[in-house]
C-alpha cells in the first residue's frame, strides 16, 4: 500500500488557489522500518583530533520525491523493493568496525597473525594503534566515518540496488537518505537521481567531492563530554550536491519540472533556479 507516502499539495499559483487538483501536486514516499538499522563501532579522526573508539545504533530512512502522477497500478514505487535493498545494505554493515579507507590521519595496513588470520592494523596521527580481525571490519570509501559521509555512501549503495533508470522511468527525480546515530542526531544527503550512465561515468558518490578543501580551524572540534556518546547533543545536518559537475543533473531536473512533474511557479524553472534551491550557499 501507499500508507507511508505523502501527497504534497502546494498553493496553485497558476489557478489562484489550493484546489488545483493533480496539476499542483506531487508524490513523496517516505520509507522507514525498525529493520533499517545497524550497530557499528567507529571513531572520527582528522588533523589534530581523534575521538575514542565507540559505537552507535544507526537508523536509516529513505525519502523519494516523484512526479504529479502515479502508475496505473496505484503507487509510485513498490515499498518491498526499497525495504529489501535498504535492509541488505544495513545488514552488511551490522556489528562491524567501520574503517575509513581514505583517511588522511590513519595509516591502515593488512597482515596475517601467527595463525594465518587476516588482520587490519590502524596507526593514528596521535600514535594510537588498533588491531582488528579483518572479518570484523568494513573498509568504507570515506575520509571520516561521520554521519554525513555515511549518508553519501549509503545513498550510492541504495541507489545502485534500486536502479536509477528504473526510478527515473517512474518519475522519481530526487532521493534522500537520512542516517540517525542517536535521538536528535541525524544527517541527510539529498541528490537528484542521475542516469545509470552518469553514475558509471562520474564518481558522483565519492565523498571527497563534498569535503571543503580547508584545514580544520581551532574551535571546530565536536564536544564529546569525554564519552563520545553525545547523548546530550543535538545535531541535524543535510549534505547536498556540490555545484561542480551538476549542470547536467540540474538541467534534467529542470526539464522534468517544466514537463509537469512539479508545477510550483508560473515562470519556467531553470538550472540556475535549482542550483540556488539545492545549494543556496
UniProtKB/TrEMBL annotation:
* GO BP term, example: tetrahydrobiopterin biosynthetic process
Q: Could you tell me which InterPro entries the record lists for this protein?
A: 6-PTP_synth/QueD, 6-PTP_synth/QueD_sf
The enzyme's E.C. designation: 4.2.3.12
What are the GO MF terms of this UniProt record? Answer: 6-pyruvoyltetrahydropterin synthase activity; metal ion binding
Q: So, what pathway does this thing act in? A: Cofactor biosynthesis; tetrahydrobiopterin biosynthesis; tetrahydrobiopterin from 7,8-dihydroneopterin triphosphate: step 1/3
Query: Belongs to which family?
Result: Belongs to the PTPS family.
Q: What's the name of the protein? A: 6-pyruvoyltetrahydropterin synthase
Say which species the protein is native to. Cyclophora tenuis (Marine diatom)
